[in-house]
Amino acid sequence: MPTLSVFMTNYNHAAELPRALDAIFSQSRPADEVVVVDDGSTDDSVAVLQRYATQHPTLKLLQHDRNLGVTAGVETALRACGGDYVYGAGADDEVQPGWFADAMQQAERHPEAGVIFGNVIAAYDDHRGDEPQSLPQWSTDAPCLVSPQRFRDEHLAVDDAGFSLGAATVYRRAALDEVGGFRAELGSWCDTFAGRVMALRHGAVYLDRPAVRWTVHAASFSHRSAGCDAGMMELGRRAAALMRTDFADLFTETEVRRFETRWLLEMAGGYERVADAVVPKRLRDVRRAYATLGREGKWFDRLLSAALRVMFSASERQRAADNAKASLPRTNPSPGEPANPASPTPAITRAQASP
Q1: Who is most buried in 37, 148, 168, 309, counting CB within 10 A?
Q2: Of 70, 264, 323, 78, whose CA–CA distance to 184 is shortest?
Q3: Where are the domains of the chain?
């Protein structure tokens, strides 16, 4: 029977941790281990985690001696996970009842699949409230094994470039390692990207059921990233670069360009906002007139896509030039500053739970 490791990173979520941990430890099919990395919290998080560790022997608590960020915490956690499958739980999210049992049942039935994923209940802290996120194109077949080609044609080709069910995804560890794990350079989108390339290599299993209640608030890692246009644009560039290099066997140039265009549209705030910025008003009016007549205006969409590709290419060239300039040796570093500062190495200690 395959084993499941659940990992979690935490920074100052002492108030939310009991809800998240209770949801994990009350699963009908318990995780074989739960690895929690406290990322230098300054609140009572460590005390809360130590209390749970005394009650649940499968909980392994690791600590960073200072705050290193979510991606560093994930790297630390994964190094400690020994399960055949891994699931990343949020310190302020709630895994839904029965999710582990259903997901691992599919893992036994379809050991070839790279990922197993369900639906997300996005819980916003504003007027929107709870918002379900799913893939209705597969709901009638679920639970279903989705082949790499079907994943490409029926999901990547039709859904938003930034659409993610990462919070509801269980990853086969061997397949995750094969694609290089969660790429730190992709920030909050690293889990989504890994899941996509794993599904394109090995297929996926989709379950049309809620897997997690995902808390979305201003302080969350993913929400902070999504709220930064420049930051999200950069993540899109990095993802496209990986598609063209490390994963060129999975993506055609046409698919990468389509991803770039749609990512730009979505991160810029939608089709109309970008169209207003790059297309003359008269052409927009003509396009809308064609739409009124029942035509799709595809020539207009092709024009917009071409304009966005030009913008993206110019931005890439400028970024490459800036990077090349920044990589030149610094002959006159600031006083006390080394010419080539080394990257910090995370300091990790295993917390000892009180008996």
Answers
A1: 37
A2: 70
A3: 4-228, 233-321
* DSSP H or E run through 65: none
**DSSP labels for 188-221?**
GGHHHHHHHHHHHHH-EEEEEEEEEEEEE-TTSH
pLDDT of residue 348: 43
* Rounded distance between C-alpha atoms, residue 117 and residue 353, angstroms: 33
Give dist(CA 320, CA 192) in Å, integer.
Answer: 25
Distance set, CA 338 to CA 30, 327, 331, 345, 346 (Å) = 49, 14, 10, 17, 20
Residue 295, both tokens: 């035509």
Cis status of the peptide bond prior to 143, with omega within 30 of 0: yes
How many Å from the N-terminal Cα to the C-terminal Cα in the chain?
A: 31
Helices (H), the chain: 17-25, 45-55, 70-80, 99-109, 148-151, 173-178, 190-202, 221-226, 229-244, 253-267, 271-278, 281-292, 298-326
Instruction: Give the right CATH number for 4-228 from 3.40.50.150, 3.90.550.10, 1.40.20.10, 3.40.50.720.
Output: 3.90.550.10
Q: Whole-prediction pTM value?
A: 0.77
Distance CA 36, CA 9 (A): 6
Q: What are the structure tokens assigned to 95, written together? A: 């895994």
User: What is the C-alpha to C-alpha distance for residues 276 and 87, in angstroms, rounded to an integer?
Assistant: 42
With 0-12 CB in 10 A as exposed, 13-18 as middle and 19+ as buried, what is 308? buried
Kindly report, residue by residue over 11-62, the tens digit of the pLDDT.
Answer: 999 999 999 999 999 999 999 999 999 999 999 999 999 999 999 999 999 9
In this structure, which amino acid lies at residue 66? R
